[in-house]
Amino acid sequence: MNLWPPFLFAGIRVVELSDDYRHVKVRMRLHWWNRNYVGTHFGGSLFAMTDPFWMLLVLHHLGREHLVWDRAGEIEFVKPGRGTVHAEFHLTDEHLDELRSRAADDNKALLWFSTDVVDSSGEVVARTRKQVYARRKNRKSVDGGVAGTV
Fold it and tell me: Could you tell me if 71 and 35 are in contact, meaning their C-beta atoms sit under 8 angstroms apart?
């Protein structure tokens, strides 16, 4: 993922990804190319560093019998981001159990996940929330039909 253009060109680095896809840590250093007009972290880059992870972690665990998408996202800027900032993601059994329960019987499941972006002293720079959508695929798409058929 570190070579994925939206991360590469914003200076976002995945520094930890657990083997079980339950934990991710990302980092972004402040550079001339990711600063805003007033010299702090560009807000779009702060959001981008948190954007794909909840969906990817959930998708990895629910597997191909589920459709998993990001449905909504929001960010609250708490203080100017300077220097190096970090964000961490911890997917729990409770998250997965909640999604599986809600998605049972072909229902859609919507679950909000929160992530703070913090600076090197641990102070919150931004709070993000992502809503993940999950639903069991219909039998045809799971059994070899067109993937993603709804």
Answer: no
